Amino acid sequence: MKKIKLILMYLWASTSVLLAQEFTSKDLTLNAHIDGTLLTPENDSRSKLVILIAGSGPTDRDGNQSFMKNNSLKKLAEFLSNSGIASFRYDKRIVKQIRTGTIDDSIRFDDFVTDAKSVIEYFKPSYETIVVAGHSQGSLVGLLALDSGASGFISLAGAGKSIDAILVDQISKTAPMFLDDTKRVLKSLKEGQTTSDFPAALGSIFNLDIQPFMMNWMQYDPAKILSEQSIPTLIINGTKDLQVGVDEAKLLDSNAQNSTLVVVENLNHVLVKIEGGDLENAKSYNESNRPIAEEVTQAMLDYINAL
Asked: What would the CATH number be for the domain defined by 3-161+221-306?
């Protein structure tokens, strides 16, 4: 049975308490593409491990990019491991390529899925229960990797529609004058054809070097894929997410076979509470001092402990 929780405000007893570190941290290189950090709680029973998968762009294991340091994934990992649950988070392969100056223009969305599957397979012999927790684009990556042996799935601000449908929605709201061009280019990509015929204003979306990646990405419909999974699923989103709206989470939930939807009031895309407007929201992407909303961490903990 599905459960829907609209969380308005919870005052947890631990609000003002800073947790002492109760875990060990070890950096690991799993293969040529995957560098990450394993946090192991004291007295680890090797029963449960959460694999955290980062969102779009060159995002590192902590949830950061250049000029965008919020440490969202690092803070989640530390919370989990302080709560007795091991965690592994890793840099997206593009991060390593940037650092080593070996950027591969042939990278595709499926490469991220391959990496996620490799992580699951690496840890599967060591842990009884593996939970995949994907943030934003990482939600779809994790969803596509579940068949490698995961026992649970958490979607954090994950989209319910394919990326082409999301782009059409965004352009229709923010730049409707480019909507017809957007639809035309997406139609070409869906047919497997790249094109140089697009307005310069859409270059950040449709540059020729991006189009093969976009073609690969847009073939996946998250809601449809989740509908084919019976795995217990936790879906979390917030009412102040500027990138992935609550409707996306509801779409995932309505298609899932076995899901719990948690909607957090005033939660934004990087999983922190925003009391003000869009300016405060945007600034929070580069403010690592903000805590992850307790509604998020508690929902994750309750879900994982119930597996």
From this structure: 3.40.50.1820
